[in-house]
Amino acid sequence: MAAVAVVRRVAGILRPLNFLVPLAYNSSCNIRLISGLSIQCFNRVQAPLASSVTKPLLSVSDLSCGCSLSIFNSVTPLLPHILQQPVRTLTYYSLRKGKRKSVKSVVYRFLRLHCGLWLRKKAGYKKKLWKKSIPQKRRLREQVFCNKTQSKLLDKMTTSFWKRRNWYVDDPFQKYHDRTNLQL
User: Fold this and answer.
1) Is the dihedral of CA 166, 171, 174, 177 positive or negative?
2) N or C of the chain: less Cβ packing under 10 Å?
3) 56: which DSSP letter?
4) Is the pTM of this model over 0.90?
5) How far apart are CA 12 and CA 35, in angstroms?
């Protein structure tokens, strides 16, 4: 366990310097790269550095302690898929005017009511309709409200243009825009 802690500390210190490794060394010399949970010795560096995290450990002799780390050999290939965070492609400053931009997929998929609630369709309402029963298709076509956390996130992903009140002719959601008899 002490060896693992040492490896993690050293990897955390050297991780910002990983991009300098190909620049600092000739391609014919041996390079020792410490990244994440893997320690490897490369003869020629031609692959991107991000791929070194997914490769298993070569040997235990590289570590100062003779502890076996077989569990890390089996878990290391799974880590990039587990640790990937969801991405919000939100533009804080546009290149032309320096303004914040809305995420277009939010605008296309959701509807914001003036009271701040967001509407969405149920998941899978377009998928594999041939195998779903008619009542199930009807239930999937319904629109549901997003919860408070989702509504806050969607508000952050849109600009004030999408939060203003709109008046549409024969709006089916007209009675839902204002919340009545609800205490916040």
Assistant:
1) negative
2) C
3) P
4) no
5) 8
H or E element, residue 141: none
Q: pLDDT, tens digit, for every residue of 77-114?
A: 666 666 666 676 889 999 999 999 999 999 999 999 99
DSSP 13-54: HHGGGGGGHHHHS-TTS-EEEEETTEEEEESS--S-GGGGGT
Task: Please tell me the distance from the alpha carbon of residue 35 to that of residue 16, in angstroms, as a whole number.
Answer: 10
Q: Rounded to an integer, what distance in angstroms lies between the CA atom of residue 87 and that of residue 51?
A: 20
Burial class (CB in 10 A: 0-12, 13-18, 19+), 34: buried
At position 97, the amino acid (one-letter code) is K
Q: Give the whole-angstrom CA distance, residue 72 versus residue 40.
A: 14
Listed residue (50, 51, 49, 41) closest to 23, CA to CA: 49
Q: How far is CA 18 from CA 12, 14, 32, 48, 120, in A?
A: 11, 7, 10, 11, 43
pLDDT recorded at residue 51: 42
Please report where in the chains the tokens 């450990």 appear, as a residue: 57
